[in-house]
């Protein structure tokens, strides 16, 4: 079975459909997306492999998914910390930050030091709406992640990658290949350049929506919010 | 270990704290509460035991938790239907209804017929804010559930029970003893009159909050949103 990818344009339209016609609030969608991210972390990096998880959040909804994931990781017994160099202005992001502060999750400012002390990194910097190029401070952040040996789970897309054409030809991100990727709702086209463990998350689509966008998602198992899928050796979905 | 119960007054105050100081929206809290309800259903009534789950929703937040649970149950492969005789006016409830309609979950009106066709019932009629007495149409609904042999999971409290003093001495609910109960956040005092499987759900409290209300919740296992606890044979927590 070949999973169909959804374009950035269609992914934006799908989110709009969910909120304008589907009755969903951003709070709900982000809660379930972030929950699925936290479950993917649990699958690829058990507590016994090291509790220090650094969640790097970008300024948009991908970063919001990361904030929610960090909260659930704290509940699971990890010691998450959050690096959030360009905070989103949406009041939801500020509320998510408050929730984390009430769980004593630190918001760090010294990224190189935090990178050294962490066992795992969640890349929640940019998602399907990334249009490039990277702006400061993100080129340096991506370079540091790329040069570090820390295992990474990327949310929706490896940050710095073009959503359609994949990794940049040179510069920060050209050699960025996270150990794990969680595609939210459905894979994005750049996944064909990806090699590693691949999960689908965001268990909230209705048949009307999967039909409208021609998605052919396999069934989630049991009560899980996350689904591991195979990427074949030719890099196709 | 004896679990401490939280009074109705403190439970209301805890919710207020979460929303006014904790940064939580009702959308988020209800999503996680309803998710935990759906996971408790999964534990007490597997898909193979019969997919027809009737979710009976009251007009307030308990009913909202039921609406969210019904949505997750549909995603798990159950065939939920919803009985919602007094719809809440909050726009959130209407959005939750839209989400269910988009999953083709039926809102039934013939309760006696639906009761006969169902394999399991979720009682999301009244929660900790129930002050009695039951008003129409709920006395008849409770009596029908009580007289039926259908297994029931109650959300937060068996509906019709006084939150402090338990089952009514006579009339509808006097002999209502659901097979399972999920206490949201923490058990309510009436749980000392309860005999059956008992779960805790709503994995979102911070230490500040559990300290403030003197709660001594056991740890949730792994990534689960629900925790089964023992009720000892003397009916204490």
TrEMBL record, chains A, B:
Its main location: cytoplasm. The keyword Glycoprotein does not apply. InterPro entries: YjeF_N_dom (IPR004443), YjeF_N_dom_sf (IPR036652), YJEFN_prot_NAXE-like (IPR032976). (6S)-NADPHX binds at residues 61-65, 127-133, 156. One of its GO terms (molecular function) is nucleotide binding. The keyword Cell membrane does not apply. It comes from Penicillium malachiteum. Signal peptide: none annotated. K(+) binds at residues 62, 123, 159. Keywords: Cytoplasm, Isomerase, Metal-binding, Mitochondrion, NAD, NADP, Nucleotide-binding, Potassium. It is found in: Cytoplasm; Mitochondrion. Its EC number is 5.1.99.6. Its cofactor is K(+). SUPFAM superfamilies: YjeF N-terminal domain-like (SSF64153). Catalyzes the epimerization of the S- and R-forms of NAD(P)HX, a damaged form of NAD(P)H that is a result of enzymatic or heat-dependent hydration. This is a prerequisite for the S-specific NAD(P)H-hydrate dehydratase to allow the repair of both epimers of NAD(P)HX. GO terms for cellular component: mitochondrion. This is NAD(P)H-hydrate epimerase.
């Amino acid at each position: 079975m070949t999973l169909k990818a959804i374009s950035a344009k269609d992914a934006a339209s799908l989110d709009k459909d969910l909120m304008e016609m589907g009755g969903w609030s951003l709070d709900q969608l982000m809660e379930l997306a972030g929950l699925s991210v936290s479950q993917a972390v649990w699958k690829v990096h058990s507590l016994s492999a090291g509790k220090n998880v650094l969640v790097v959040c970008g300024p948009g909804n991908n970063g919001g998914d990361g904030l929610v994931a960090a909260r659930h990781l704290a509940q699971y017994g990890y010691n998450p910390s959050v690096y959030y160099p360009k905070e989103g202005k949406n009041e939801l992001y500020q509320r998510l930050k408050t929730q984390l502060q009430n769980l004593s999750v630190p918001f760090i400012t010294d990224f190189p030091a935090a990178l050294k002390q962490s066992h795992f990194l969640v890349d929640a910097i940019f998602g399907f709406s990334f249009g490039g190029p990277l702006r400061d401070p993100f080129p340096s952040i991506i370079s540091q992640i790329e040069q570090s040996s820390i295992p990474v789970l990327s949310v929706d897309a490896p940050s710095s990658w073009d959503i359609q054409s994949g990794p940049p030809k040179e510069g920060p991100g050209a050699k960025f290949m996270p150990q794990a990727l969680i595609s939210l709702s459905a894979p994005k086209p750049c996944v064909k350049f990806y090699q590693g463990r691949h999960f689908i998350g965001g268990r909230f689509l209705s048949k009307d929506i999967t039909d409208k966008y021609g998605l052919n998602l396999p069934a989630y198992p049991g009560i899980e919010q996350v689904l591991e899928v195979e990427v074949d050796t030719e890099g196709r979905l």
